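Quarterly update from the structural biology core.
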Amino acid sequence: MDLSDFFSSFNLPLFHPHKIGALKINIKYAAILKGDTPDAHCLIWVRRGHMTIGNSEKQFFIEANMFSDFLLFPHWHIIETSDDIEAYGLFIDENFFHSIFPCRPPMPIEYIKMMDKKYVIQLDALAIKTLTIQWEDIADTLSYERKLYSHQLIELRIQILFLELQNINKRLSLTKLTSKSNITHQERIFSNLVTALDNHIEKSHNVKFYANILCVSPQYLGRVVRNVSNATVSELIQKHLIREIKKLLLDNAISITQIANILNFADHIVMSKYFKRYTGITPSEYRKLISK
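Predicted structure, tokenized:
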């Protein structure tokens, strides 16, 4: 379910359309999340009690001082909770998320790989308190949508939240950030590919182009990317390209034809078809959506 539709249908007040929603999860609101959940990047942490969350493939248990990032865990819902559950949830629209962090995810690759395997991590009381303070700041901003600069404040609040997550990650050594000496050869190639995509996505959308930059064959690059990320090179290119189109669409001074030229599409019609294939809407429709 769309983020805005979810919060509107249940009359949940703490949300900004097409951007972010905040929900303090008690026994009442946990019942809502036992049904449908929004299609969004979800962060949930528990201060008291426990809950079981799952989808059609797996389930996991979250109790006090545990944190979950559902970046790579789709179609989840709450299965059961304790009566004293007190948890905090943030639901960030994917398009809005990528507009805030247009080039790279706000956490290191090691964190993303860890969450892809574990989904739930153990924190401490200080970390949970820190996240809750950030949640309260975001909720306060959402409570006053008509406040001057509310859009900019929401963006800054989210950026601060992820900076705090970085601090928590380093303080608790949740992921041991690998030094250049112990990164595997394949991980180094993958990291170099991400950098190459950041630097050259406007120039080329071709797998062979990036393989040549990295001095490997397209076939070997494909195996590396599959081993490290469980994706294909074409999928990574597509994600970077869609993200770049969305970033440029934020600037109304740039026409869609100009965006197509900047990103080396044959013309704006080809780019529009490409964008709609992966997002379900045209660039014009997306621009109208984010300007509401």
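Strands lie at 15-16, 20-25, 41-48, 50-54, 59-63, 66-69, 77-81, 86-92, 120-122.
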